[in-house]
Hints:
The structure holds three protein chains of three kinds.
Chain A: H1 2-23, E1 47-51, H2 62-73, E2 76-80, H3 87-96, E3 103-106, H4 111-116, H5 124-129, H6 134-137, H7 140-144, E4 147-148, E5 157-158, E6 160-162, E7 169-174, H8 175-182, H9 190-202, E8 208-211, H10 227-230, E9 237-239, E10 245-247, H11 252-266, H12 279-287, E11 291-297, H13 300-308, E12 314-317, E13 326-328, E14 333-336, H14 343-354, H15 359-366, E15 373-375, E16 381-383, E17 385-386, E18 389-393, H16 416-427, E19 429-431, H17 439-460, H18 466-490
Parallel strand pairs in A: 1-2, 1-3, 8-11, 13-19
Antiparallel strand pairs in A: 3-14, 4-5, 6-14, 7-11, 7-12, 9-10, 15-16, 17-18
Helix pairs in contact in A: 8-9, 13-16, 17-18
Chain B: H1 13-45, H2 63-70, H3 72-103, H4 111-123, H5 128-137, H6 145-152, H7 155-167, H8 170-178, H9 183-194, H10 196-211, H11 215-220, H12 229-237, H13 251-274, H14 281-287
Helix pairs in contact in B: 1-13, 2-3, 2-13, 3-6, 3-7, 3-10, 3-12, 7-10, 10-13, 12-13
Chain C: H1 16-22, H2 24-42, H3 57-61, H4 73-80, H5 82-115, H6 119-130, H7 137-147, H8 164-171, H9 185-212, H10 217-225, H11 230-255, H12 262-265, H13 273-276, H14 279-289, H15 293-322
Helix pairs in contact in C: 5-9, 5-11, 5-14, 6-9, 9-11, 11-15
Amino acid sequence: MKKNLLIRLTGLGLAVVMAAGMSGCGGSGGGTGGGSAATEEYSKPESIKMTFDTCMTFENGLQDVCDEYKNQTGIDLSIEKPDHAKYYEKITLAFASGNPSDVIEMGSTYYPENANNGALWDMTDAWENTTATAKSIIDESYVDALKVDIKDGNGPRLYGFPTVAGNGTITYARKDWFDEATGGNAPKNYDEFIEMLRKFKARGNGAIPITAAGLINSETPYDIYLREFYQDAIPDFYQKEDGSWVDGFTEPAMEGALQRMRDAFAEGLIDGEIVTNNTSTCRDKFNSGLVGAFNYWAGMWCAKLDDSTPDTELVPLPIIEEAGHYIERVPTAMVITNNCSNPVGVFEDLIMYSHDGGAGQLLFTRGVKDKHYTENSDGTATALAYYEDPNTLVEKSFYAPELSITEWQDPIALDPRVESSLQVFRENREFATVPQVSDVISDNLANLNVVKKEVIANVVHGNISVEEGMEKYNNEAGSYVEAILADLNSNG
Amino acid sequence: MLSTQFSFRKGYRARAVFVILNAIFFIFMMVCMIVPIIKILSDSLMNHTVYGLKLIPDEINFIAYGRIFSQESLRRPLVISVYTTLMTTFIGLLISTIGAYILIQREMPGVKLFGYMLMFTMIFNGGLIPTFLVMKTIGLLDSLWAVIIPISLNVSNLVLMRSFFEGLPKSLFEAAEIDGCTPIGIFFKIVLPLSKAALASIGLFFAVAAWSEYFHYVMYISDTSKYNFQYKLRDLFADKQEQSEGININVKTLQSAAIIVSIVPFMFIYPFCQKYFMTGITMGAVKE
Amino acid sequence: MAGVNHETLVVKKPPLGNLLYKYRYFYLMAIPVVVLLLIFFYWPMLGIRFAFSTYKLKHITSGAGPDYSTGFGNFVALFKDKFFIDSFRNTVVLSFWNLVFSTVFTVIVALLINELQHEWAKKFVQTVLYLPHFLSWVVVASIFTLLLSAGADQTGTDLTTVGFVNAIFMKLGFIDHPIAFLTTKETWRPAWYIIQRWKETGWGTIIYLAALSGISPDLYEAAEIDGAGRMKQTWYITLPSLMDTILIVFILNLAKILNVFESVFVLYNELVYSVSDVIQTYTYRKGIQGNDYGYSTAIGLFKSVISLFLVTGADYVAKRIRGYGIV
C-alpha cells in the first residue's frame, strides 16, 4: 500500500514531464528562410502568418476577418496578437527562435533597426513595379517617409509599408475655459498662448493650465508634446542644410526652450506633476475637469476625450506662430521578413490588397460585412457594435479609417470631431523622418537620453539654472554626443 | 495556559497598557493598508473618471463587475486562473515536500549535491532567450505547462519547507523507524500531518504566485484563449495611446473592478489557511 | 528545538552500499525533481555563455548567432560605464536597507500579531494587512503617486490639489510647504522603503506566523511557572525559536537582493535618477535601444556572482551560529 503510494507519486512526477513533452504544439512553421529575395515572379501565396499589435481582438471577431479574407482571396491568413506591453520582446523572441511571422507590424522605433540588421525584405522594387490599384491611389509621401538608407550603397530603400498615417498630437483646450479666456479666438503666438494659460490658472480651485505626460517624449520625435514651448528647438540630432549633423540640444534654440518651460513652470502654468504623469493620469485629470489645455493625439482620441469629459467640448488649437508646426510621426510599418517564402505574393495579395481602395481596404479597415458593419441601400454603410460590447461601435479591424493613406471613400461617415481635429492637425503638421540607426547610436542613446531628461527636468523644476543645465549636459553627455556625431557625420 | 487576563490591577498593568497600544498600532496599520484599497473599490463603483482620492463613491454602479462576469474575454481568463492556481499549488507542494523530505536526510549520500544543485538555480539563470528556446524545443510553447512547471519548481519554497520539516522532533522519526515504518510511511504518517502550518503557508505562496503570474504567459503563450486574469488585468492597464478597443464603460472603472475581483478570493482563503497557524496545534498532535 | 542535533559521539559510518540501499526510495523520489531542474533551469543556463559575446538584434534577426570575439569585452564596458556604476551603487543601497527594514519590521509585526488576544482579531488583522500584496506595482505606484503628490502647482499659491499625505502633514503643522516626496532626491528613498513595507509586510509575516505555531506550548508553560513575564517569554523563547526561519528567509532574500526592478521602474523619474536608478532599470533602458543580449547576460552574470558570494557568506555565518547552513 505504502509502496503503491510512492510509485504513484513518482509516477505522477514523471507523467508531468512526459505530458509536458507531448502537449505542446509549436508554431505551424511558416516558410523556410527565403534568404536573398531577388525580384521573383509573382505567385499566389497559400497561407500567410502575420503578427499584429493594433488590431481588433479575437473576441471581437478577428478570426471572422481572416475567414472573410480567405473567402475573397483564397489565402489562409493566421494572426498572432501578442500582449501590447511586451510586443517587441515577443517579436525578438520569434526572430531568435528563427521563426518570425511572414508579416509583422512594426513601429518606427524598431523598424529602421531591423531593416539595418538585414532581417526585412527589401520591397522597393515590388512597390515600383506593382500594377495594383494601390499604386495610383496612395499618398506617396507616407511611403517615402519609411525609406531607410542602411548605408549599403543602394541609397534609401523601402523595407516596410505604411499601415496608416503616423498621426501626431495637437493641443486641445476645454471649450468653456477657452471661450472665457480668449473669446473664442485661438492664440496666434506664444504671448497670447501664455496669456490664455494665465487666465486658466486664474480660475483657481486647482485648475491646471496645461499638462502633458512628461517634459520630453521618451522616443522620437522627442518634442511631440509641449510644442508651444519647444518651438524651434529640436532636442535630437538633426541634419543641417549643408548636410552636416548637429545635436539640437546644444544649439542656442534649446536654451530658449528651456527658459520658456522654466518660467512657465515657476509661474504654475505647467502641471506641477508633469514629471510623474503618464498619459493615463493626464487623461484622468483632463476628464475630471482639472485641466485647461492638453497635448494629445489627433483624430479618434478627440472624440474619446470629449465623450469622457462631461459638461464641455474640446477645441483643437492650431499651432502658434513661433512653433510653426505639429509633428506627424513616421507611420507604423508592415514589414515582410526574410523568413517569408513568397514575399512578392504577400506584398501583392496582402499589403497592396489592403490598400486597394475597394473590398480589400474595406475589410482591413471596417471588418466584415454584416458582422462589423451593414450596408445601407444608398451605398453608405453603418458600423455595428463590437461582439463583446453592444454599446460601442466597431472602430476598425486593422487600419484606423480616419488615418487611411489612400484616396478611399469610406462608406461609413466619420465622427465630425475626429475629422475636425485631424483637419487642424494636417493643416499644421510636418513629417518626422525615420530615426538614424547604427551600432554607435544604439550603444550611446540610452545614456544620452537619461542625461537629457535629467537636465530638462531639473532646469524646469528650478533646481538648476539654464546655464548650469547646459554645462551639466556638456559634462555628462559630451562623450556620447561626440561619438554619435562622429558616426553620423562620417557616414555623410 | 498563557495568561490572557486583562486587568489594571497591579502586576497586570504593563500588560494592559501593552494590549491597548498594540490594538492602536494595528488599527493604525489597518487604516494605512485599507485606504488605498477602499479608493480602488470606490473607483470601481463610479462609472466616470475621478482624479484624486475619493473614498466614498458618488454613485453606485455595478456595470464594471457585470462586464467582467459576462464578457467572455474576461470570464475565461478567470477560469484559466483558477485552474492554473489549483494545479500549481498541488504540483508545487508535491515537489517541495518531496524535495524537502530528501534534504533532511542528512546521511544520505549525495544529499549535499542535491542541495547545492537546488540553491544554484536560485542564483544563476540562463536568461530570456535561452529559456524560451528550451521551451520551444520541448514543445511547451502555447501550453499551460510552460507556466505551471516553472512556478511549481520554486527553490525558496522548498528550502522553507525543509526548515519546517527540520523543526519536527527527531525522536519521532527514530521511533517510527523502530516500529518498522518505511520512509514513505513516515512521510505520510508523521511528516505531512505535523506540517499543516507549513503546507498551508507554502501552499498559499504557490497559489498566490500562480494567481498573479503574468510574465510566463507573455513569453510562452500566444494563444489568446489561454491567458489568465492577471494577464488581462495588465492588458487593461497597458497604455495604448492610439489604440482603443470597444470599452464603452469608463476604462478606469473597469480596471478598478478587475483589481477588486483579483483580490477578493484571497480575502476568504487567508482565514481558512490561518486556522492551521494556531499555536500548539502541531505539538498537540504529537502528544496524541 | 531545531539546531541542537550535534552528534557528540563519533558514529561509525555504515558502508556506502548499505546507505545507498537504505535511501533507495529517496533516490527514486529525487529523480523527477532532478529531471525537472535539469530541463527547466540547467539547460537554459547554457545561455550564460552569451555573456562573453556580442549578441545584438542584428545577430538574432540575421540568424548569425552570437559573436564570441568579444571575450570579456562586455565586462570591461560595464565598469567603464558611469551609469552602470551608479545603478549598481543604488541597487546595493536600496536593497540592503530594504532587506534590513523588511526583516526587522516584519518580525516585529508578526510578534505583535501573535500577541493579539482573539483568534478573530488575528484573522481579521492579518487578512487586511496582507491585501496590498495582491496589488501589482503599477497600481501601487498610481495610488502612491497620488497620495504623495505635492500638487499640480508647486509654486505655493494654490494648494487645493496637494496629495493626501501632504495635506495631513500640513494640517498637523509638521510642514508649511508640501513636499514632492517622489520627485525630491532626499525623500525618494525613504518613500520607497515605506511603500515597500506597506505592500509586503503583511505578506512577509505569514511565514513567521506559521513558524510560531510550531513552538511547543510546554516551553511557555514552563517559563510561566518560572515566573517569566510576557516580555521575557518573547525574548527567551519566541525569538530564538523563530531565529531559524528568520535566518532562512534572510538568506533567501539575499539571493535575490540585486533583483530590484518593477517597484523602482514604476516609481522613479528623471528628477531622482541619481538616487533611484537600479541595475535592472538601467538594463531595461539599454535594452529598449541597444538590444544587446550579450551585454545584458553579462550584467545578469555579474549580479549572480555577487549573489553567490553573499549567499555563501551568509551560509557560512549560519553554519557558525546554528551548526548547519541552509544547504
